[in-house]
Write a structure and sequence with these properties.
By secondary structure, this protein is α+β, with helices and mostly antiparallel strands. The chain folds into two domains: 12-251, Beta Polymerase, domain 2 (2-Layer Sandwich), CATH 3.30.460; 273-313, SH3 type barrels. It has seven helices and eleven strands. A six-stranded mixed beta sheet has the order 1-2-3-6-5-4. Strands 10-9-8-7-11 form a five-stranded antiparallel beta sheet, with no helix packed on it. Strand 5 and strand 6 (201-208) form a beta hairpin. Helix 1 (37-48) crosses helix 2 (86-108), helix 2 crosses helix 4 (155-168) and helix 6 (215-230) packs antiparallel against helix 7 (236-260).
């Protein structure tokens, strides 16, 4: 059974500015080694031999570099982590998290309606073991050793965040379930897997604000379904409840945007405050009524030429 994107609870709320001193690797049972993946392997191998908090059976796992971006042959899943040892992958993802959050904040700082809402620098070990042993996800294919969520207030903000992430990170893969949701739970998100300089990769979910707010309510029903699936039972009632919660949250998101983000009607006038399709606010500085174009100056200082039909009320 596929893991659901909502299994990200345990996120730490983001307090602006981003935290600069997250939980250390020592707290996770790792020694802090930052030079190479091979050094991480040596340090983690020493730890796995004596630390009971690490996953059962890890001592027997072979650490070997993986071709990130290739397909793991047994599961058919895309490889997104550099080794097949979950302890090493976790250490790398945790190490990369502070820089990841700073980069995300920088990337979205001028996007109205976008907020870094949650992050998690280490996955729950029991849930990680469940994914690997119970759901057949090899350690190198697990996406969320480290993860973050960005809440967006509009479809335009979502598009702007996706574009900003692509400009600032190498993207290993992406999946667009923002409009209609995933097939099983109808959870809305635009997910990207981004590469970090130390070889790890981090997961990012871009989520409608109302859907993110409904997460905790829906998560109980999701866990009921997941646990039933793992034990060979069905949980149709809980699945239906999770879908209803997600659908209702998305209806609130769509309703708010349909009333608050209308296309500008009538002539575009010099000096008017407008919103671009990307969600960025701007002021009209020049209008060509014949060509139906306008030049605007954005709040972040850029001069942009746009068509009248692409301007929205500020």
């Amino acid at each position: 059974m596929a893991a659901h994107p909502l299994d990200r609870l345990g996120f730490e709320p983001i307090a602006f500015p981003a935290q600069t001193n997250p939980r250390s690797l020592a707290d996770l049972g790792f020694e802090t080694v930052t030079d190479t993946i091979g050094a991480h392997a040596t340090a983690a191998a020493r730890k796995t031999a004596r630390d009971p908090r690490l996953l059962p059976g890890m001592q027997q796992m072979i650490v070997r570099p993986q071709a990130v971006g290739a397909v793991e042959p047994d599961s058919g899943r895309k490889i997104v982590q550099p080794t097949d040892n979950p302890a090493i992958n976790q250490a790398l993802a945790t190490e990369a998290m502070p820089a990841y959050k700073v980069q995300l904040l920088q990337a979205i700082r001028h996007i109205p309606g976008a907020r870094l809402a949650a992050s998690r620098d280490a996955k729950n070990p029991a849930r990680l073991a469940e994914k690997i042993a119970g759901q057949g996800q090899p350690a190198e294919t697990v996406s969320d050793y480290g993860a973050a969520q960005i809440a967006v207030a509009s479809p335009e903000a979502k598009d702007a965040v996706v574009a900003a992430v692509r400009r600032n990170f190498p993207v290993l893969r992406q999946q667009d379930n923002f409009t209609f949701g995933d097939p099983e739970y109808r959870y809305r998100s635009y997910s990207l897997q981004v590469q970090m300089p130390n070889g790890s990769s981090e997961e990012l979910q871009i989520v409608p604000r109302e859907v993110l707010e409904a997460n905790r309510q829906e998560h109980h029903d999701y866990k009921t379904v997941r646990n039933a699936g793992l034990s060979g039972r069905t949980a149709d009632q809980a699945r239906a409840a999770a879908r209803a919660i997600n659908d209702s949250a998305m209806e609130r998101f769509n309703s708010r945007n349909s009333s608050a983000d209308r296309v500008v009607k009538g002539p575009v006038e010099k000096g008017a405050r407008v919103r671009l399709a990307s969600g960025v606010l701007a002021k009209v500085v020049y209008v060509d009524p014949n060509m139906r174009i306008a030049r605007v100056r954005t709040d972040d200082g850029r001069n942009v030429t746009v068509r009248h039909k692409d301007l929205r009320r500020s």
